[in-house]
Amino acid sequence: MKKLFIFLAAAMVAVGMMAQPPHRHETGRGHGHGPGHNHGSERHIVCASHDQLSMTLQVVGNQSFDDKKLEIAKLAVTLGHFCTDDLARVAQLFSFDDNRLTFLLYAHTYCEDPQNYPLLRDVFAFQSNYDKLMQTLYPGRR
After folding, report:
1. Alpha carbon distances (Å) from 57 to 25, 88, 89, 137
2. CA 17, 6, 112: angle at the middle one, nearest 5?
3. pLDDT digits (tens, 9 = 90+) for 4-52
4. Are the CB atoms for 84 and 119 separated by under 8 Å?
5. In terms of Cα–Cα distance, which of 66, 95, 65, 90 is closest to 76?
6. Are 38 and 2 in contact (CB under 8 A)?
7. Which residues, listed in sequence order, are joined to residue 23 by a DSSP beta bridge?
8. Among 49, 65, 85, 137, which residue's Cβ finds the most Cβ atoms within 10 Å?
9. Helices in the chain by DSSP H: which ranges?
10. Are 70 and 94 in contact, with CB atoms under 8 Å apart?
């Protein structure tokens, strides 16, 4: 497993994940926790490049079991710049909703556009798991 983590980290560096990827632009105030920059009413969101996302999807998808997928996906999230759409694609690689939920709860802290998390409904097989995600992240909101 340690070799796999080293491979993933090296691959991410090789495709530029550690460097600043191209900006995605969004109007309005965002509240991402990453390196996006607020300029008045505009927010520039930094997200993973196509190559970075592809590498992550490949490495995570090549794992046979969800527990290993979860370990690697968490590492990738801490090393890269992922937006909600990117995280949804990674989450869909898990076999079970509880692992999708665990991953998305963890990834929220690192997400570049967490205000879009309510759009993740289709990632889950069961509405109850989406409800748990929303209740945990946004307690008291409906």
Report:
1. 24, 11, 8, 25
2. 30
3. 555 555 455 444 544 444 434 343 333 344 444 343 445 677 888 999 9
4. yes
5. 90
6. no
7. 46
8. 49
9. 2-14, 50-61, 66-79, 84-91, 97-107, 127-137
10. yes
Q: Would you say 36 and 43 are in contact if contact means Cβ atoms under 8 Å apart?
A: yes
Among candidates 59, 38, 34, which has minimal Cα distance to 48?
34
Widest CA span in the chain: 46
In total, the chain counts a number of residues equal to 142
Q: What are phi and psi of 32, to 5 degrees?
A: -70, 160
pTM: 0.74
Exposure class string for 1-33: b at 16+ Cβ within 10 A, else e: eeeeeeebeebbeebebeeebeebebeeebebe
Q: In the chain, what are the domain boundaries?
A: 2-137
